[in-house]
Amino acid sequence: MQKLVYFIFALLGRIPLPWLHTLSNLLGWLSFHLAKSERRLITQNVHFSKIAANDQDERALVRAICNETMKGGLELTIAWTRSSQHIVSLFKEVHGWEHIQAAISQGKGLLLITPHLGSYDLAGRFLSEQLPFPLTAMYRPPKLSWLEKVMNSGRERDNGYVAPANKQGVKQIVRALKAGEATIVLPDQVPKAGEGVWVSFFQKPAYTMTLASRLANMTNVVPLFFCGERLPHGRGFALHIAPLTGELNGDKSHDAQIINDNIEDWVRRFPAQYLFGYNRFKGKPPKNQANRNELHQMHHD
Q1: Cβ atoms 196, 208 nearer than 8 A
Q2: Alpha carbon of 222 to those of 29, 44, 129, 174, 180: distances in Å?
Q3: How many whole angstroms separate alpha carbon 254 and alpha carbon 240?
Q4: What contacts 231, CB < 8 A, 6 or more positions away?
């Protein structure tokens, strides 16, 4: 099964990017019209975000998200099977590299944070090829074990390594940061019970991981957000890098809220390229926590 999946991925990964995106648009159109439950979830999350100005804009954004989500899925075939040199060639613009260079010159560890936005796998491979030291990306193992092997064979090569989202993986990430290396963490995954806090995300309570802010609070670590923006018409990608905004103070809820606020800012920049189909609002917060989120929303407004 693993060899067959890799063979199919390798074939798809050889399709020129403009054609791959054209195929993605077709699959996105089918998804919008046929996958009703997925469309309903995307529509609900877009509505919560209040990014769209009106119902017409909201519907157009949902259609665009379906297309971009399909592009992100098919781009994994490139990220996991094409050479690092080919992936680097797909990045036509880089903005904010001076922030990475400053951290390197100071000998500090690089905590690179990206939400499920744009082409984060391809952006991670690009970063791995440009950095003078290893990059370790934290990931959540998929439910299908054979897919994990294909995924990791594509990620763990050249200067790139992976760490599972468990205690052992966290230790691996901490060691890399202390050694002055780079790590990647996706902060918008819903954590396991007991491993997160309830804070606001687009003015709605969301159970949020504390790992990203805890790592950002480490000594001699520079936290930077990044995004691999998908350029139109299959032209390639643009890498955007910027410092984390807001002051962390060590309080779990406060710092997790800072991380969520940063994610919101990035999503507003590239709303169609965010994975709004992910169920970010699982569960319900305790009543006292819900009241705190209402206060945060009033302050935000």
Answers
A1: yes
A2: 41, 35, 19, 13, 10
A3: 25
A4: 92, 93, 237, 238
Which residue, chain included where needed, has tokens 């491979």? Answer: 125
Mean per-residue pLDDT over the chain, rounded:
92
Tens-place pLDDT, residues 81-118: 999 999 999 999 999 999 999 999 999 999 999 999 99
The first and second tokens of residue 105, run together, are 């010159």
Reference 230, options 88, 72, 62, 60; nearest CA is 72
Give the integer Cα–Cα distance in Å for 224 and 266.
Answer: 12
Q: Give the DSSP H/E element, type plus range, for residue 88.
A: helix 84-89
Token representation of residue 187: 């902060």
Closest CA to 79 of 88, 66, 70, 67: 88
Number of CB atoms found within 10 A of residue 297's CB? 14
For the beta carbon of residue 60, count every other beta carbon within 10 angstroms. Answer: 13
Write down the pTM of the prediction. Answer: 0.92
Residue 298 clears pLDDT 90, i.e. is over it: no
- Of the candidates 212, 4, 253, the one whose C-alpha atom is nearest the C-alpha of residue 111 is 212
Residues 275, 267: Cα–Cα separation, whole Å: 9
Contact in structure between 142 and 148 (CB atoms under 8 Å)? yes
C-alpha to C-alpha distance for 8 and 10, rounded to whole angstroms: 5
Q: Cβ atoms within 10 A of the Cβ of 62, count?
A: 22
Q: Which two tokens stand for residue 61?
A: 């954004």
The tens digit of pLDDT for each residue in 167-201 reads 999 999 999 999 999 999 999 999 998 899 999 99
Report the distance separating Cα 209 and Cα 130, nearest Å. 28
The widest CA-to-CA distance across the chain, in whole angstroms, is: 53
